[in-house]
Write a sequence for this structure.
């Protein structure tokens, strides 16, 4: 059921939604700018290795084989591409569209956290001369935080109910199933992350 309201007390909510959208576009623009400026260096460091010339190679440089770090790096970049496709496909005109979009926003941040955590553990393990004790310590801490950060969105998503609202002519999706401790759970996820 769509909630329609022209209540002026909702204008700060509308303004906050617009500002967060502008902020997201600004962050995305900065990320794309950084990516385009550093793409040549990234290509040299990640995609091309500096092995000596071999007969079967096309170039003087030999292509790097796929490694765990390359896959994780790519996964972290492309994990939000389905989000872009979802926002373009959703019409925001029914319960299921808002519900899917809200759950997608909730779970993609957890997935990104896991990918970044694995990359960080791999780098720290290499920095500490592949110390087994340090690896065990990092994995235990990472698993504890990841389990807690995965349980919290699961609890939140069990009570999530996306709903469409038309506030002063703007279409917005919001959560109707909010509980009193939802803000605390969201803050805990940020604290753990």
């Amino acid at each position: 059921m769509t909630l329609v309201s022209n209540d002026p007390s909702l204008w700060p909510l509308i303004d906050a939604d617009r500002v967060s959208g502008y902020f997201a576009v600004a962050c995305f623009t900065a990320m794309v700018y950084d990516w385009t400026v550093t793409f040549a260096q990234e290509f040299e460091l990640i995609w091309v290795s500096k092995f000596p010339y071999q007969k079967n190679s096309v170039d003087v440089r030999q292509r790097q084989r796929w490694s765990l770090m390359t896959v994780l790096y790519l996964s972290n970049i492309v994990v939000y591409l389905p989000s872009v496709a979802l926002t373009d496909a959703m019409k925001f005109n029914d319960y299921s569209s808002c519900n899917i979009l809200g759950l997608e926003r909730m779970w993609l941040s957890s997935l990104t956290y896991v990918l970044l955590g694995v990359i960080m553990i791999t780098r720290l393990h290499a920095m500490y001369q592949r110390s087994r004790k340090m690896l065990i310590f990092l994995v235990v801490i990472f698993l504890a935080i990841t389990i807690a950060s995965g349980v919290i969105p699961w609890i939140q998503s069990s009570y999530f109910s996306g709903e469409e609202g038309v506030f002063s002519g703007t279409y917005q999706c919001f959560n109707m199933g909010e509980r009193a401790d939802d803000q605390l759970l969201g803050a805990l996820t940020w604290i753990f992350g």
Observations:
- The chain has two domains: 9-65, 66-193.
- The mean pLDDT is 73.
